[in-house]
Write a structure and sequence with these properties.
Layout (H helix, E strand, L loop, with lengths): L15 E6 L2 E6 L4 E3 L4 E4 L6 H7 L8 H16 L3 E4 L12 H13 L4 E5 L17 E3 L2 E3 L2 E3 L3 H6 L5 E3 L4 E5 L6 E8 L3 E3 L10 E2 L7 E6 L2 E4 L4
Parallel strand pairs: 4-5, 5-6, 6-7, 9-10, 10-13, 11-14
Antiparallel strand pairs: 1-2, 2-3, 3-4, 8-9, 11-12, 12-13, 12-15, 15-16
Length: 233
């Protein structure tokens, strides 16, 4: 079983890892976001806004305030990255029941606080439930976005089928297991493969797909404001 490596002590010097893909420098951040310094771009994936509302509509009790807390976390990520362009890498919304008046208003208020920020949504499978996003959100939408030779898509299958490699994607909500026996943990992660990178879902309440590290070039787990490699070599 893979064991985490690193100091184990969260601090300001170990809250991101720098890698390169298609000659593009990428900062993998311990909040689950991805920063591209050369174009001041911050990427977050799979927010699933309104997932709590969808659960409650289905009769499943979940806490309130999840979206508000998520947007606060997003504000912190945007401000600490000092980015000028934010990319939502798909599944901004959970489903058609998620676009409630409360969610629309909360996101509109967040957008007003960041009026100078360019915001682009790379459409994900959940976003296709929405015919038109609110004008107050000021979103540009597209099926894919290009950064030099690097393609940003939501679903890794899209990148493979369209031969868009190298690419960055989300969709899988990647996680990795570390430790053994009673010390085993399931952690969100960045999964790096030879021709693509899968970024984690941003924020809590998302679940995660546990991935094998065997075919990965590297795997970077996230915990306690720290990110470290757990890929055995």
């Amino acid at each position: 079983m893979d064991e985490p490596r690193g100091s184990g002590i969260p601090n300001e010097t170990c809250n991101h890892q720098e890698i390169s893909l298609a000659d593009v420098t990428l900062h993998l951040r311990a909040d689950g976001s991805l920063f591209i310094p050369q174009c001041s771009m911050l990427i977050v994936s799979d927010l699933h806004l309104g997932k709590d509302a969808a659960f409650r509509a289905a009769g499943i009790p979940v806490p309130t305030g999840i979206n508000r807390d998520l947007l606060k976390q997003l504000t912190h990520s945007v401000e600490t990255a000092e980015c000028s362009h934010l990319i939502f890498l798909g599944d901004l919304i959970h489903n058609r029941n998620s676009l409630t008046p409360t969610v629309i208003d909360e996101m509109a208020r967040w957008r007003k606080q960041h009026e100078d920020l360019k915001v682009t949504l790379v459409l994900g499978n959940h976003d296709r439930h929405v015919r038109k996003f609110p004008d107050s959100w000021k979103l540009e939408t597209c099926p894919a976005y290009q950064v030099n030779a690097l393609t940003l898509v939501h679903d890794p299958a899209t990148g493979v089928n369209q031969k868009a490699a190298p690419f960055v994607c989300g969709h899988l909500h990647p996680a990795v297991q570390t430790g053994v026996a009673a010390d085993r943990m399931k952690l969100r992660c960045f999964a790096l493969y030879p021709d693509h990178l899968v970024v984690p879902a941003f924020g809590p309440f998302k679940g995660g797909m546990t991935l094998s590290t065997r075919k990965m070039t590297d795997c970077f787990a996230i915990a306690e404001n720290q990110i470290w490699s757990v890929k055995q070599r």
